[in-house]
């Protein structure tokens, strides 16, 4: 296998913005339905886990359970927003709707299409985070103004999960098979990234593995520091991890999709 | 594909014919700059398809084999969203969309989602979409497949109209009558190679002759034909005799060979096609 082929830097052009706009237009056609989950989901989780389960938990790391999981809820929705858009969403557009085929018959290139899809996936994360913030703020669970930094950060983190999903879309033999990486990677990540209990209760080796390979761990660390209003220099290390992995996944996913689609 | 060489003149209608798997769609995809070529050279508008894809695609319209309309949008939105990919300013795009909807008789469907259009309407919308950038070259991969006769004739009329306006048209088709009607010149392909190139008339004259006489497959007829050194072919229980003078052959057969059923007809492109590519079924 020629590894270099997957590391070729994609050409970035304004064509990607046109693909992004196409997806945004479709999203806005069903705006009412699409805007609902980011409002409803945090409410459900906060009531069930924060205020229900939380009754039995005095405090975690010196804060109430609801306050502890609030940043996790935002992080998880950042992950899901981009991941589902660029896995199931992109696969449907690519395979069933042939949208990509139609677009590459115009001056746009396949790279424009994939970059546009990735940017749109990241935008979904940004939209989710932005809509959730006021709901959670209503319960007094997050620090303002630090938490406002979550909005731009959601785009960066979203781009990482979009790239991850796009790599899966590039190799999945059919739509059902997308379930495997979800079961084996996304769901464990959802549970073991310091989301609903602190990472440090896990065996040390598992903690290191989580930090090494689970992007959500770093996302939760950053978002939690922001909602707690206690950012520190250690966040730069997490940010660096995210930027590097995001960049690699971005480049590799575009090349993997090119390999799948150029025949 | 190999050993494929062709050139299409500006303003002509050029056809690619061939059985399934002959390489027609691959050829179309190469012209469209979406399938890379491992070797050889292909120029569109005098530009290399490997390096100047954006410029080439800017002047090209494509009707793919499979309708790939955007099911997330209405008829009108499909065209408008597509216009953005060509950087057409919005005001101008809206004017063109209205014009095109009228051109393909879909004004009344403008707010319909594409899923609920009939097959013929979808095909017409794909044609309209291919024209949004006022292309100099229009590529159609089996434009009339699955259409009823009314829709097919409408499509033919539209293509002839476009040709009159100076649009160069390249198409593939399985319908040989369509190719004979529309194409100024065409090629017949098989197994990734071009077998022949020319005008439909020249091909018929060269490979078949102007007429065909058909008779039942019978040993008497065969010996009779051999005696006259006729040019014939046995196809199952039928014999086809290629000739310039069907009257004479028919008379001979009826008088000398004591035959009952003989038909004479003009040769068609289909006869050329079957002669060159054989009658074996393709996968």
Automatic annotation (TrEMBL), chain A:
It is a multi-pass membrane protein. The keyword Membrane applies. It holds the Pfam family ABC2_membrane. It is found in: Membrane. The chain crosses the membrane at residues 35-56, 68-91, 118-142, 149-172, 178-198, 205-223, 235-257. It comes from the Archaea. Keywords: Membrane, Transmembrane, Transmembrane helix. Its main location: membrane. Residues 33-260 form the ABC transmembrane type-2 domain. InterPro entries: ABC2_TM, ABC2_TM_bact-type, ABC_2_transport, Nod_factor_ABC_transporter. GO terms for cellular component: ATP-binding cassette (ABC) transporter complex. GO terms for molecular function: ABC-type transporter activity. PANTHER family: NODULATION PROTEIN J. This is Lipooligosaccharide transport system permease protein. It comes from Methanococcoides vulcani.
């Amino acid at each position: 296998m020629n590894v270099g082929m997957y590391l070729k830097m994609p050409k970035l052009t304004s064509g990607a913005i046109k693909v992004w706009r196409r997806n945004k237009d479709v999203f806005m056609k069903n705006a009412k339905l699409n805007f609902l989950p980011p409002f409803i989901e945090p409410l459900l989780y906060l009531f069930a886990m924060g205020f229900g389960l939380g009754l039995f938990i005095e405090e975690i790391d010196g804060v109430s359970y609801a306050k502890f999981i609030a940043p996790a809820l935002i992080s998880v929705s950042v992950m899901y927003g981009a991941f589902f858009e660029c896995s199931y969403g992109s696969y449907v557009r690519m395979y069933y709707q042939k949208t990509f085929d139609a677009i590459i018959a115009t001056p746009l290139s396949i790279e424009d299409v994939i970059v546009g899809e990735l940017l749109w996936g990241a935008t979904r994360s940004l939209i989710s985070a932005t809509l959730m913030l006021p709901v959670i703020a209503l319960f007094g669970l997050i620090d303002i103004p630090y938490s406002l930094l979550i909005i731009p950060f959601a785009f960066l983190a979203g781009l990482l999960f979009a790239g991850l999903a796009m790599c899966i879309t590039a190799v999945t033999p059919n739509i059902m098979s997308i379930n495997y990486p979800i079961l084996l990677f996304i769901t464990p990540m959802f549970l073991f990234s310091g989301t609903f209990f602190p990472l440090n209760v896990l065996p040390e080796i598992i903690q290191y593995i989580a930090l090494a390979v689970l992007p959500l761990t770093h996302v939760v660390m950053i978002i939690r520091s922001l909602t707690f209003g206690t950012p520190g220099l250690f966040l730069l290390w997490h940010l660096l991890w995210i930027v590097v992995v995001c960049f690699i996944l971005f480049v590799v996913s575009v090349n993997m999709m090119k390999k799948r689609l150029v025949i | 594909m190999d050993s494929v060489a062709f050139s299409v003149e500006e303003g002509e209608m050029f056809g690619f014919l061939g059985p399934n798997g002959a390489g027609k769609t691959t050829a179309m995809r190469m012209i469209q700059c979406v399938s890379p070529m491992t070797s050889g050279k292909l120029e569109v508008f005098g530009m290399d398809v490997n390096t100047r894809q954006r410029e080439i695609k800017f002047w090209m319209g494509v009707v793919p084999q499979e309708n790939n309309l955007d099911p997330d949008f209405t008829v009108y939105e499909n065209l408008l969203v597509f216009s953005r990919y060509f950087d057409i300013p919005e005001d101008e795009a809206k004017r063109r969309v209205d014009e095109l909807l009228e051109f393909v008789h879909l004004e009344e469907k403008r707010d319909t989602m594409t899923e609920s259009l009939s097959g013929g309407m979808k095909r017409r919308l794909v044609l309209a979409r291919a024209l949004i950038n006022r292309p100099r070259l229009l590529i159609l991969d089996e434009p009339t497949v699955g259409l009823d006769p009314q829709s097919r004739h409408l499509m033919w009329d539209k293509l002839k109209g476009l040709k009159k306006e100076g649009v160069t048209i390249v198409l593939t088709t399985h319908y040989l009558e369509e190719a004979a009607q529309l194409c100024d010149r065409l090629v017949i392909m098989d197994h990734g190679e071009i077998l022949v190139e020319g005008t439909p008339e020249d091909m018929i004259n060269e490979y078949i002759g102007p007429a065909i006489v058909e008779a039942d497959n019978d040993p008497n007829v065969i010996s009779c034909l051999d005696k006259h050194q006729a040019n014939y072919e046995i196809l199952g229980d039928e014999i086809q005799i290629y000739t310039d003078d069907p009257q004479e052959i028919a008379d001979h057969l009826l008088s000398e060979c004591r035959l009952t059923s003989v038909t004479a007809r003009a040769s068609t492109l289909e006869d050329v096609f079957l002669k060159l590519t054989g009658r074996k079924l393709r996968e």
